[in-house]
Design goal:
Structural class: alpha/beta
Shape: globular
Largest sheet: 6 strands, parallel
Radius of gyration: 22 Å
Strand content: 5-15%
Helix content: 40-55%
Number of strands: 12
């Protein structure tokens, strides 16, 4: 939004499933001509999706459906003239699927159908069957979204390849996420040395994050504490579910819930971990931790979306024993940890520069025909 508003007028239409997010509308007005925020109530959204379980439609679409938001979007189309439509994630494409004559750029970030396929492998029946069904239905929906889009944006080459399998004729562009290296800088927040601390950051309402921290706390941390008894595991992120909250009862585990500034907790960490079994796209938590000059230990699945140079700066470990041994080396060899942290910051600064990604985004918005291949007709913005 900051980049788009630097050169264009932007009207934003969005849902908010957390009441606290409604209070952030004023901050968004710094970047937008108008901001329409409609509450989404998760319990009602789940009930709204349930009848669609026995259809071919993906449950994701009715979950994020809102008559109020639909009316606001189409009311704006009736009152104003727009040159471009920018859709963020496949579930929001439903609000503009009948709009014609305006180029649509759809940012899928990653490929959600692939994540549902991964979820299915971690659940038992009947949930595994529901998740597999959702993957198949969403794949069909993603294909239709691609057909209606002038350009489809993803964050990595891996997701681009997946999307081209789903929609071979799609005009796919890869624009990596970036990191604000000045904001996520070890100089930004004073370090708070204490017990050796391994940390994880992320939205704890998200299933892959839950699965990752539970795995680490139960299978890796005990191995680390055998050699470093005062080692701690810090779980930072909003909306931890009951299983994640229960981890705080374990010796050496702290679960923070929502924090106003994640950097104050990055400053407490000695090592950052990303022990994912389910992963897609670019893990922002990795590039933020690396920008903060923390050494990172992650599974091979987690680093698959990173550039080769940045991936090489991550310590990769896939079993509990491998991960514990790698973390212990970093905890017990401070000089090695400092060197890995410095290397990570250098490589992230070089490969995940926000300005470069945002300039590419603006090129697509301003001339979607010339910026890619096979675009629908569109008039470049002046």
């Amino acid at each position: 939004l900051r980049a788009l508003s630097s050169r264009h007028e932007v009207d934003l239409f969005t849902l908010a499933d957390d009441p606290a997010d409604l209070g952030r509308r004023e901050a968004l007005l710094d970047f937008c001509r108008s901001v329409t925020v409609v509450p989404l109530y998760p319990r009602m959204a789940r009930l709204r999706s349930l009848p669609h379980l026995f259809t071919n439609a993906p449950l994701t679409v009715p979950y994020f459906a809102s008559a109020t938001l639909h009316d606001a979007v189409h009311g704006a189309f009736a009152e104003r003239s727009y040159d471009r439509i920018f859709v963020y994630c496949s579930a929001m494409a439903q609000y503009v699927e009948n709009v014609v004559g305006i180029p649509v750029l759809t940012d899928l970030v990653d490929v959600d159908s692939d994540k549902w396929s991964q979820y299915a492998t971690f659940k038992r029946l009947p949930l595994s069957a529901v998740y597999r069904r959702e993957a198949n239905a969403l794949r069909q929906y993603e294909r239709s979204v691609c057909k209606r889009s002038t350009s489809v944006i993803v964050t990595t080459d891996r997701e681009a390849a997946l999307l081209r399998e789903i929609a071979p004729s799609a005009a796919v562009d890869v624009i990596p996420n970036g990191v604000d290296t000045e904001y996520f800088s070890p100089a930004a927040v004073r370090a708070n040395p204490g017990a050796p601390t391994v940390g994880f950051t992320g939205d704890m309402s998200y299933f892959p994050n839950q699965e990752a921290v539970i795995y680490f706390a139960q299978q890796v941390l005990p191995l680390v504490r055998q050699s470093v008894p005062d080692a701690r595991f810090l779980v930072v992120g909003r909306n931890p579910n009951r299983k994640v909250q229960a981890l705080a009862a374990m010796e050496g585990v702290e679960v923070t819930g929502f924090v106003p500034d994640v950097r104050t907790h990055l400053a407490r960490m000695t090592v950052s971990v990303a022990p994912f079994s389910i992963a897609a796209g670019i893990q922002n938590k990795i590039i933020e931790a690396m920008s903060y000059q923390l050494p990172v230990v992650a599974t091979s699945r987690t680093v698959q979306g990173l550039t080769p140079a940045v991936a090489r700066a991550v310590e990769v470990a896939d079993t509990p024993g491998e991960m514990a041994a790698t973390i212990l080396r970093l905890l017990q060899d401070p000089q090695f940890a400092v060197e890995k942290g410095a290397e990570g910051r250098r490589r992230v600064t070089a490969d995940y520069n926000w300005e470069r990604s945002l300039e590419r985004l603006l090129e697509l918005v301003e001339s979607p025909v010339n910026a890619g291949i096979g675009r629908a007709a569109a008039t470049p913005l002046q």
